[in-house]
Amino acid sequence: MMADRRAAAHDAGITSGLGGHGDERAMIAERPLVTVIDDDESVRESLPDLLRELGFAALAFSSAEAFLASDCVHETKCLVLDILMPGGMSGPDLQRELTRRRQQIPTVFITANGDETVRQRLLAEGAVACVFKPFSETTLLEAINAALGVN
User: Fold this and answer.
1) With contact defined as beta carbons under 8 Å apart, do 34 and 61 qualify?
2) Residue 115 falls in which region: left (phi positive, over 0), alpha (psi -120 to 50) or beta
3) Which of 30, 34, 38, 41 is most buried, by CB atoms within 10 Å?
């Protein structure tokens, strides 16, 4: 049954970062759900593992559209969101769509583009943080904790 859910999730562009131990919903209820949205498969595979090690529940999506179509929007406590994703909605587009839907999810943007003006614009538009790839575990944890209001 768990394998069936994973296969269906994989087909929809979702990667579980929960490790397959016990019931996924129970883990999400116990720990804050941090959702990763990135078109880069290596990020979608590695970042949820790191987040789980840091004490979070984690899911990953390959696109903003896949995330919006999921039932995870209301459960997500923090988004870790790539800025540029080819083909569909960009990270900032998703943030604006969530605002339009009155879904206020604290957002940490991640990007390989080291443009400080883009970073400043995203922060002005409501992002909690914008970190440049490659980033350290400490930098990411500090940004997520800020998004969750943890000291």
Assistant:
1) no
2) beta
3) 34
Sequence length of the chain is: 151
Backbone angles phi, psi at 36, to 5 degrees: -100, 130
Q: Give yes or no for a contact between 61 and 35, defined as CB atoms under 8 angstroms apart.
A: yes
Tens digit of each residue's pLDDT, the chain (151 residues): 333 333 334 434 545 444 443 445 555 568 999 999 999 999 999 999 999 999 999 999 999 999 999 999 999 999 999 999 988 899 999 999 999 999 999 999 999 888 899 999 999 999 999 999 899 999 999 999 999 998 6
Q: End-to-end alpha-carbon separation of the chain, Å?
A: 39
Tell me the CB-side half-sphere exposure of residue 4, using CA atoms within 13 A.
1
Give the residues across from 33 on adjacent strands: 57, 76
What pairs with residue 14 in β-bridges? 61
Among 117, 103, 108, 96, which Cα is nearest to 38's? 108
- Reported for 99-107, long-range contacts at CB under 8 A and 24+ positions apart, including other chains, are 99/126, 103/73, 103/74, 105/73, 105/76, 105/77, 105/78, 105/79, 106/77, 106/78, 106/79, 106/147, 106/148, 107/78, 107/79, 107/81, 107/147
